[in-house]
C-alpha cells in the first residue's frame, strides 16, 4: 500500500494532483515503487488532520503516549526484516547495514522515546516577588512540519516523528522524493500501534511543492528539517513568513584528526569505516583526515590497503560491504568532485573510478582516497556525500585543530590520541556538535545529535530534543488574595 499513496489521517490515500514518479533501486535501475507527488491541497488536508488529532493527543497522559510508543516498537520489531529489505531496495544500502544499523537503531529510538515521554516536566519554582508562585509548564508546540533527506530514510523519519509525538505534538512528514517507502510504513505502523489517526501523517512529493506548502502553512508551528545547507537556508526564509520555530540539521564535513601518538591501526580501521559508512552518504562521515607528519605516510598506505579489501556488490548480498550511491545523479556528482580534484593537482591513491562489469548497471563508485589537495580546495571544503576520504598532513597540535575547524560546517569530528590531555583539548577546541575520541560514527538514542556553525542548530535524539518540540509557559499565581495589589500604586493612587 505504500506504493503510490500518501498516509493522511490514519489511512492511505492517493494524492489529489494525480502526478507521481518512480522510486528506483540504484543497484540496478529497476523501478521498485511509484510515489505520489503531493499537491498543496494534500498538504493542507494532512495539516488539518494533524491539528484536529493534536488536541486529543496533546491531552493524553504521558503514560498513554508512552504505551503507544512501546507498542510501536513492538510492531516495528515484527516487521524488522521487511523494513530492512525495503530500505535497501530504495537506497542501495547493503543489507547488513539496514539489518544491523538502520532498523535496530530506529526501533531503539522508538523505545527511548517511549521512556522519555514520561520524563517530560516543567518546574514548580518559587515566589520570586513574594506575592506570586511561578510555575513553568512544558507544552507541545502543536503541528510540526518535518522534511527529511534520503540518506537514512527510516532513521531520519524516526528522529523527527518520535520526539514530536512523545511530547504531544502531531506531525506531517515529507520524506525525500527518492526514498519515501519506509516513512510510509512507519505511519502505517503508528496506526497499528494505536496512535490516533492524524497524529502521524506522511506526504510524499517534491521539496519545492509539498515541502514549501508545509513550510508556509500557517497552522504548522514548527518546522524540523534535515538536509543540505542551501535548502536549510531556504527553509528559514519560507518559515519566516509565518514566524515558525525552526530546527535545522544540515550538512557536514567531519574532520578526523590523528595525533602522532595515536594507535595507527585503530585510526586506519576507523578512517575506512568512518568514511565509507552508507557509501559516505552520512552527514557525520569522516571526510578530511588530518594526520600529524610522523604518521602520515603509514596512515595513507594503511587506509589504501584496507580500502582495497572493501567488497562492492549487490546490496541484497549479505557479504557486500559497499553498495551503490543513492542515485546515478549522486554518483556523477561524486565522480565530478574527484575529476576536478585531479585537474587541480590532487592525487588519487586508490579508487576514483566508476566500476565496470556487473556493477556498471548500478550507481556504484569505488572507495576513494585522495591526497595532495590544498586545504582551500573544493574537495576539502565542500560536502561530497560519497565514499571519498581526503588526507592532509599537519605539524603542530594547534595546526591540526585549526585545520579541522577550517570549513563552514560543524556537525561531527573525531580525534585520535592515547594522550588524555590532547583528547581533552581536542574535544574542547573542535567546533562541532559531536566529537568522538578514538572512534568515529557511533551514536546512541540517549545523546544529542546536531550541528554547530552552518551545520544547523537544535538537537535530534536524547532528552535535549524536547527543547525543540516543546514550548515553555510561565504561569503566575497570585498568593496574596489582595484586591488592591501593592504594585497598583505605580499605576494609580497611593499605597
Ligand atoms: P536536500 O536538502 O536536497 O533535501 C532534503 C529534503 O528537503 C528533501 O525531502 C527535499 O525534498 C526537501 N526540499 C528540497 N528543496 C526544498 C524546498 N525548497 N522547500 C522545502 N523542502 C525542500 O538533501 P538530501 O540531498 O536529501 O540529503 C542530503 C543532505 O542532508 C546532506 O547535505 C546531508 O549532510 C544532510 N543530512 C544532514 C543530517 C544531519 O543530521 N545534520 C542528517 C542526514 C542528512
What's the SSE blueprint?
Elements (H helix, E strand, L loop, with lengths): L5 E3 L2 E3 L6 E5 L6 E6 L3 H20 L2 H17 L1 H12 L3 H22 L6 E2 L7 E9 L2 E5 L5 H14 L3 E5 L6 H12 L7 E3 L4 H10 L3 E7 L2 H12 L4 E5 L4 E5 L5 H13 L9 E7 H15 L20 H16 L3 E4 L17 E4 L6 H4 L6 E7 L2 H8 L7 E5 L3 H10 L4 E4 L18 E2 L8 H4 E9 L17
Parallel strand pairs: 7-8, 7-10, 8-9, 10-11, 12-13, 12-17, 13-16, 15-16, 17-18
Antiparallel strand pairs: 1-2, 3-4, 5-6, 6-20, 11-19, 14-15
Nicotinamide-adenine-dinucleotide binds next to helix 7 and helix 8.
General shape = globular
Unique bound compounds: nicotinamide-adenine-dinucleotide
Radius of gyration computed on alpha carbons: 25 Å
Helix percent band: 25-40%
Looking at the structure, the CATH topology of the largest domain is: Aldehyde Dehydrogenase, Chain A, domain 1
Note the gap between the termini.
Answer: 72 Å
Structural class: alpha/beta
The total count of helices amounts to 15
Keywords: Oxidoreductase
Protein name: Gamma-aminobutyraldehyde dehydrogenase
Domain Aldehyde dehydrogenase: 19-475
Active site: 249
Annotation keywords:
alpha/beta; 7-stranded mixed beta sheet; 20 strands; 15 helices; 495 residues; Ald_DH_C; 2 domains; 6-stranded mixed beta sheet; Aldehyde Dehydrogenase, Chain A, domain 1; oxidoreductase; Gamma-aminobutyraldehyde dehydrogenase; binds nicotinamide-adenine-dinucleotide; Aldehyde Dehydrogenase, Chain A, domain 2; single chain; Ald_DH/histidinol_DH
Commentary on this structure:
The chain is an alpha/beta fold. It folds into 2 domains: 6-250 and 455-475, Aldehyde Dehydrogenase, Chain A, domain 1, CATH 3.40.605.10; 254-437, Aldehyde Dehydrogenase, Chain A, domain 2 (3-Layer(aba) Sandwich). The protein has 15 helices and 20 strands. Strand 15 (368-371), helix 12 (378-381) and strand 16 form a beta-alpha-beta unit. Nicotinamide-adenine-dinucleotide (NAD) is lined by residues 147-151, 174, 176-177, 207-208, 211-212, 215, 226-228, 231, 234-235, 249-252, 283, 383, 385, 411, 451, 455-456. Nicotinamide-adenine-dinucleotide (NAD) binds at residues 147-151, 174, 176-177, 207-208, 211-212, 215, 226-228, 231, 234-235, 249-252, 283, 383, 385, 411, 451, 455-456.
Amino acid at each position: 500500500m505504500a506504493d503510490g499513496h500518501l498516509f493522511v489521517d490514519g489511512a492511505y490515500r492517493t494524492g489529489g494532483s494525480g502526478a507521481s514518479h518512480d522510486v528506483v533501486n540504484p543497484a540496478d535501475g529497476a523501478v521498485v515503487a511509484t510515489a505520489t507527488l503531493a499537491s498543496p491541497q494534500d498538504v493542507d488536508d494532512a495539516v488539518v488532520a494533524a491539528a484536529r488529532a493534536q488536541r486529543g493527543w496533546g491531552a493524553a497522559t504521558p503514560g498513554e503516549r508512552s504505551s503507544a510508543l512501546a507498542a510501536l516498537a513492538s510492531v516495528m520489531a515484527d516487521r524488522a526484516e521487511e523494513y530492512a529489505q525495503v530500505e535497501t531496495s530504495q537506497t542501495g544500502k547493503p543489507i547488513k547495514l539496514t539489518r544491523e544499523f538502520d532498523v535496530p537503531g530506529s526501533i531503539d529510538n522508538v523505545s527511548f522515546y517511549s521512556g522519555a515521554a514520561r520524563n517530560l516536566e516543567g518546574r514548580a519554582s518559587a515566589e520570586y516577588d513574594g506575592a506570586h508562585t511561578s510555575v513553568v509548564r512544558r507544552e507541545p508546540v502543536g503541528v510540526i512540519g518535518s522534511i527529511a533527506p534520503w540518506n537514512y530514510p527510516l532513521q531520519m523519519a524516526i528522529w523527527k516523528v518520535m520526539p514530536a509525538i512523545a511530547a504531544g505534538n502531531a506531525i506531517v512528514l515529507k520524506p525525500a522524493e527518492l526514498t519515501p517507502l519506509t516513512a510510509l510504513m512507519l505511519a502505517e505502523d503508528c496506526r497499528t500501534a494505536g496512535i490516533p489517526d492524524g497524529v502521524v501523517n506522511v506526504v510524499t512529493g517534491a521539496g519545492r511543492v509539498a515541502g514549501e506548502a508545509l513550510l508556509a502553512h500557517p497552522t504548522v508551528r514548527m518546522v524540523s528539517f534535515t538536509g543540505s545547507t542551501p535548502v536549510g537556508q531556504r527553509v528559514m526564509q519560507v518559515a519566516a513568513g509565518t514566524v515558525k520555530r525552526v530546527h535545522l540539521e544540515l550538512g557536514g564535513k567531519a574532520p578526523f584528526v590523528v595525533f602522532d601518538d595515536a594507535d595507527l591501526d585503530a585510526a586506519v580501521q576507523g578512517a575506512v569505516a568512518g568514511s565509507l559508512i552508507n557509501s559516505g552518504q552520512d552527514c557525520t562521515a569522516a571526510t578530511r583526515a588530518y594526520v600529524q607528519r610522523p604518521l602520515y605516510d603509514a596512515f595513507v598506505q594503511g587506509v589504501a590497503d584496507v580500502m582495497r579489501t572493501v567488497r562492492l556488490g549487490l546490496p541484497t548480498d549479505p557479504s557486500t560491504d559497499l553498495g551503490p550511491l543513492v542515485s546515478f545523479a549522486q554518483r556523477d556528482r561524486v565522480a565530478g568532485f574527484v575529476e576536478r580534484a585531479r585537474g587541480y593537482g590532487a592525487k588519487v591513491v586508490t579508487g576514483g573510478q566508476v566500476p565496470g562489469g556487473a556493477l556498471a548497471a548500478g550507481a556504484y563508485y569505488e572507495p576513494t582516497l585522495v591526497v595532495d589537495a590544498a586545504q582551500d580546495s573544493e574537495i576539502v571544503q565542500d560536502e561530497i556525500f560519497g565514499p571519498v576520504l581526503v588526507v592532509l598532513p599537519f605539524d603542530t597540535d594547534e595546526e591540526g585543530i585549526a585545520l579541522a575547524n577550517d570549513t563552514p560546517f560543524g556537525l561531527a569530528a573525531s580525534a585520535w590520541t592515547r594522550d588524555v590531555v590532547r583528547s581533552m583539548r581536542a574535544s574542547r577546541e573542535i567546533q562541532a556538535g559531536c566529537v568522538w575520541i578514538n572512534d568515529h560514527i557511533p551514536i546512541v538514542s540517549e545523546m544529542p545529535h546536531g550541528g554547530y556553525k552552518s551545520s544547523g542548530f537544535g538537537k535530534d535524539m536524547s532528552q535535549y530534543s524536547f527543547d525543540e518540540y516543546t514550548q515553555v509557559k510561565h504561569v503566575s499565581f497570585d498568593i496574596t488574595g489582595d484586591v488592591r495589589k501593592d504594585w497598583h500604586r505605580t499605576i494609580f493612587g497611593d499605597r
